[in-house]
Amino acid sequence: MIGGNNALRLPLSRALIPAGALNGEIYVVVDEKGKIVSYALCFAPGQSLFQTTGKVSARSKRKYLGETNIWYLNVLATDPAYQRRDFASSLVNDVFDKMHSDTHWSGL
């Protein structure tokens, strides 16, 4: 999404979190100062980051957005200064627990 331009990493994260909050679920790890250091952004069946407000047929949704009974983990990110502390692994486990408790397929 950033085309190799690391200067876009933080602005992209700052945009994805509130955008994801509209239709998805956000799981975060914060440090002792309250700074988000790792996050996972996922979407329940029938939801996506880029949704349209127009009418889209069920057939078109399946064709272009995939199956509607699948959870998607769209973003998993950790601040480089906080990597190798198992934060992302913990978030993935939390997300998978949620997905599997809902008895739907999950996708990465």
TrEMBL record:
Q: Which residues form the N-acetyltransferase domain?
A: 24-100
Coiled-coil annotation reads none
Matching entries from Gene3D superfamilies are given as: 3.40.630.30
Q: What GO molecular function annotation could you give as one example from this UniProt entry?
A: acyltransferase activity, transferring groups other than amino-acyl groups
The record ties this protein, via Pfam families, to: Acetyltransf_1
Entries under InterPro entries matching the protein: Acyl_CoA_acyltransferase, GNAT_dom
This protein is called what?
N-acetyltransferase domain-containing protein
State the species of origin.
Answer: Sphaerobolus stellatus (strain SS14)
